[in-house]
Amino acid sequence: MTEPDRRKADAELLSAVGLRAGLNRAQLDALATLEQFGWRLRFVRRPMFLDPIPVVFGDDGERFVVIEADGSLNERPDFQIRR
Questions:
Q1: 56 and 40 Cβ atoms separated by less than 8 Å
Q2: Tell me, what DSSP letter sits at residue 4?
Q3: For residue 13, what is the DSSP state?
Q4: Are 63 and 83 in contact (CB under 8 A)?
Q5: Which residues contact 12 (CB under 8 A, 6 or more apart)?
Q6: pLDDT of residue 9
Q7: pLDDT per residue as tens digits for the range 11-49
Q8: Residues with Cβ < 8 Å from 52, sequence gap 6 or more?
Q9: What DSSP letter does each residue of 35-80 carry, written as one string?
Q10: Residues 6 or more apart from 24 whose CB is under 8 A from it?
Q11: CA torsion sign, 4 to 32 to 17 to 58?
């Protein structure tokens, strides 16, 4: 009997852990709350000499928010996201 391939799940886990690196406690707490409602961390902008900017998308993939350094949500960030 063969074991199912777990590489994809392992890669997703490592990716999620890597994205969270550098986020502060307030951002991680806000992210955990959003994830309970089906939102997913897609990417983190890392501008040079500035704090990381996590971008979280809703389950529809259209709506997104930015988690600010203080843990607040910004629905209208000052940058565009290509689709």
A1: yes
A2: P
A3: H
A4: no
A5: none
A6: 56
A7: 555 556 788 988 999 999 999 999 999 999 999 999 999
A8: 22, 23, 27, 44, 45, 46
A9: HHTT-EEEEEE--TTS--EEEEE-TTSS-EEEE-TTS-EESS-SS-
A10: 51, 69
A11: positive
Pull the structure tokens for residue 42. 């897609």
Handedness of CA 62, 75, 54, 82 (dihedral sign): positive
Among candidate residues 74, 83, 72, the one with its CA nearest the CA of residue 26: 72
- Predicted local distance difference test score (pLDDT) of residue 17: 73
Paired tokens of 35: 């994830």
* pTM for this model (two decimals): 0.77
| pLDDT of 1 above 70 | no
Q: How far apart are CA 40 and CA 36, in angstroms?
A: 9
Are 63 and 33 in contact by the 8 Å Cβ rule? The answer is no
Q: Which residues contact 43 (CB under 8 A, 6 or more apart)?
A: 19, 54, 55
